[in-house]
Amino acid sequence: MNSTDTPVLIMITRRSVIIYAVELLILTTGLVYCSLFLAIVLKVRCFHQNLRILLVNFATAYMVEIISRYMIVIPLMHTYILGYASPLDTFPWCRLAHFVHDMTIAVIFMDTVVLVVERSIATRNSRTYELSSSSFIGVSLVVAQWSLAFVFIWLNQAYDNTDEKTDFVLSAACQKMYLNTQLFTVLAILSIIVDVIVAVVFIILLRINRRKYDENRKESGNYLSNRYQTAENIRSTRLLYPLMTAKVIVSLASAGLLLTAGLVLAVSKDTVAKTQTASILGQSFDLLIATYTVIFPQLAFYGQRSLLWASKKSILCVRRKAVQDVKSAAQNIRGVDGKPLLNDIKKEFDDHFAALEALWNK
């Protein structure tokens, strides 16, 4: 592009708005499921304290990510509908929204790492870990996770280079990606490498736990409590297996989409075509993360019977309360004379014999 060329204005397209609408629907569903999951994990006592802290952190991160997407998508849709910039579509607002969104994405990418660290400690200390009620490990991992994400995204925005050598202008502030392309590429590549390593380590941990349990069963000198703690460790680790598998698949696919989008922007010469292609890839990434916020609680519920039972109980309690409210409202219907129009069997029985007694006394 020559210095005299006019930058191309990239508008919000109808296709993008349709994708945003679908994403908002998925995000809302994910917010409901993650809220239910968070409430249940805080209530049940089938996990070690450290593992519970990590699961609560996961659900919280997904919920914050969903809210940050609302902060980005709603102004964009509002701008498209109005035909001019939404009052919310300002650079400070959008920069904050992207900072929160990118930070939670970095936290989500590190979920598998902290899980493997916690399960590794549990495996190494399997004889005493389940009996310990200390939450130091869980809190430390969560603090480290958010601190690293904060520092990385702060550097990413502080050294934002997306405005350098661009041949297009965005029509909305929230369309802009506030990041350093080199650092973001490093993050995407690192996430792929780390996810592969974590998947291998997790499988090894599961095998080690099974071998320990078999050895404890064969050796008569092992106490029942040792076998129980090893079995609990296996059960908790097995619960995380579908979560880890889905998370690794989503992470690899997400990193692949981001790298492909970056490659398209770097290689393609057609300004409009490359920005549209990169936009579709970016929205595909957002849809993938949104879908995982719905899948994550489902995998956890069906991977652990206690969670599944607690979730069904919560839903049934809500339904039962709704039915009771309807019955109560129906029973309170009264006629013009102020007497109830609908009575239960006992009330009708009592009223009938009271009337007979009054008639007899006359």
Automatic annotation (TrEMBL):
| Transmembrane domains' residue ranges | 17-42, 54-76, 96-116, 136-155, 186-208, 248-268, 280-303
Primary site of residence: membrane
Q: Which InterPro entries match?
A: 7TM_GPCR_serpentine_rcpt_Srab, GPCR_Rhodpsn_7TM, NRL-GPCR1
| Keywords assigned by UniProt, alphabetized | Membrane, Receptor, Transmembrane, Transmembrane helix
Q: Where in the cell is it found?
A: Membrane
Any Pfam family hit: 7TM_GPCR_Srab
Q: Where is the G-protein coupled receptors family 1 profile domain?
A: 33-300
Q: Which GO terms describe its cellular component?
A: membrane
Q: How does it sit in the membrane?
A: Multi-pass membrane protein
PANTHER family in the cross-refs: G-PROTEIN COUPLED RECEPTOR F27E5.5-RELATED, SERPENTINE RECEPTOR, CLASS E (EPSILON)-RELATED
Q: Under what name is this protein listed?
A: Serpentine type 7TM GPCR receptor class ab chemoreceptor domain-containing protein
Organism name: Ditylenchus destructor
